[in-house]
Amino acid sequence: MKAIVFRAPETPIEVGDVELAAPKAGEVRVKIAAAGVCHSDLHVKRGEWDAPAPLVMGHEGSGVVVELGEGVTSLAVGDHVVLSWVPPCGECRYCRSGHEARCQKVATVVAPKGVLFDGTSRLSQGEESLHHYLGVSSFAEEVVVPASGAVKVRDDAPLDVVAVVGCAVATGVGAVLNTAAVEPGSTVVVIGCGGVGLNVVQGARLAGAERIVAVDVRADKTALAVQFGATDQIDASQVDAVETLFELIPDGVDYAFDAIGRTSTTEQAIRMLGLGGAAVIVGLPPTGATASFEPLVLAEADQRILGSNYGSVRPSIDIPALVDRYMDGQLKLDPLISARRPLAEAAEAFDDLESGEALRTLLIP
To answer: Annotated catalytic, 186?
Structure first.
């Protein structure tokens, strides 16, 4: 099959012929319908995150099940699925307690080692084994994933749209509804109105937030955030975002979401909080980045800093529910998709993302 292979940071990615082995016990093979290009992929391409190489890129996608491994009963050939880059093992203490986004086996084996649950890969080029990216590797014509990483969704949902649910939507909406558990009537600020940030905005709308302030250095993105539910806009290229936030909401906000993940934006989110507020770190920074805050202020104001991995979702429950909300008109997904490109144009898709022009480009094998 054709797939996008990454070999080293800041080197051209290549479209290559890759061999995909048959699924083993507990796994399925999925024909990819669409795969989203995300900033997490860009971090790897830039060398900002440690990732085993060579690897087949991509962690957001959708498709159709075409083959079952031994013992798989939860899926059938022909099922439409959205891929989850956290395929819960179902056995560790986090999975058993309902915190599947913290799956210990994913965190210690699948993600850092670039393999599936048994410690091996299904991807190769000739005699060379290739690594999986986050247990998915969706920049390809087909994938083999753990059955728990292929989440069945309704057949009438367009696969070339709901692909974004597997990362951007689950991460953004989940950060609001699951990690922060935003209450109706709350005040919220969202720093960064890209693919994830816009989903934080619409998650806050779904939660019933009274004020939702969208912050970005691009006015076109804060304007788009209004379509997703923002009540106020701050153009951070023209004004000091923290000062302007306090002009809009003098007491500070109940929840500040950093959907970018830079040191500066994390520190801004903490400074924007009111009494009892929570700063939620959703965007992911380069490895080793640090931020600072004044602990005394945090303690005296009864504030919190929360990390949100994958929106604290339970994939088998939350992903179908998010697809249902889209089909019912509660969630906007179509405006998130900036373009659709073939696999051969993956490099151009990365350029669009890096320039800030694209929210989500879908690669269509």
So the answer is: no
